[in-house]
Design brief:
With about 55 residues, the chain is mainly α. It has a domain of about 25 residues. Helices cover about 40% and strands about 5% of the residues. The protein is built from 1 helix and 2 strands; from the N terminus they run ββα. Strands 1-2 form a two-stranded antiparallel sheet. Strand 1 and strand 2 form a beta hairpin. It starts with a strand and ends in an 8-residue tail after the last helix.
């Protein structure tokens, strides 16, 4: 329940998926971001040093 600008009682009706628990997704998102950062630094290093081994890792 809420009120309008004029002070009348009303209800909020939403459509679609609204998941209030975003904390559960924080760990996988953080891990994916870290993987992107590490791979980016690895590729920058390979570009500067010229490590042409062909294998990552």
């Amino acid at each position: 329940k809420t009120i309008t600008k004029s002070g009348e009682d009303t209800e909020i009706i939403t459509k679609g998926r609204h998941d209030p628990c975003v904390g559960i997704r924080a760990v996988p998102v953080g891990e994916a971001m870290m993987a992107c950062v590490l791979l980016d630094h690895l590729l920058l290093h390979r570009g500067q040093v010229g490590d042409g081994g062909g294998q990552i890792g």
